[in-house]
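Shipment paperwork, digital attachment
Item: protein structure file
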Amino acid sequence: MNDLHIQAQTTTGTSQDQERARRLHGALTEASLRNENVLYARTRGVSQNNGSFGFRPGYFDRASGQAVLSRFADGTPAPVHLLDGLPASWILDRDHAGHVTATRQGIVSGFIRDGRFYTREEAITATAH
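Attachment content:
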C-alpha cells in the first residue's frame, strides 16, 4: 500500500466520521442529504442499493424516538429521502415557496424496515449477509 492510498483512506475515514457527527447533531438540509448520498453512494446506505432488501427511506427524531417514512409534500410515500413531507414540528425552516430547507437538530436520515428505523450504517450492516 503506498502513501497516497493510506492518505486517501485516512481522509475518507475522517470525512465519514465528521459527516456522522454532523448528522447526529446538526440540522438536515437538501445539501446535507446530497452529501450523504455521495458519502454512501457505493453502499447499501442509499435507497437505490437497499430497496430490494425491504428498506424504505425514512427519518428518526432522536428527541421523541419517532420514526417516519420519507414522503412527498402531499403525504405520498417517496422512493428517496425528501424533506417536504416531514412532520411540521420537525421543520426548522422553509423557502419562499414553502419547501423545507432545514430540520431542527436531532433528525437523522436512514431507513425503515419492518417497523424499525435503521441508520445508514445499520442498513449497510443488515444487508451484509
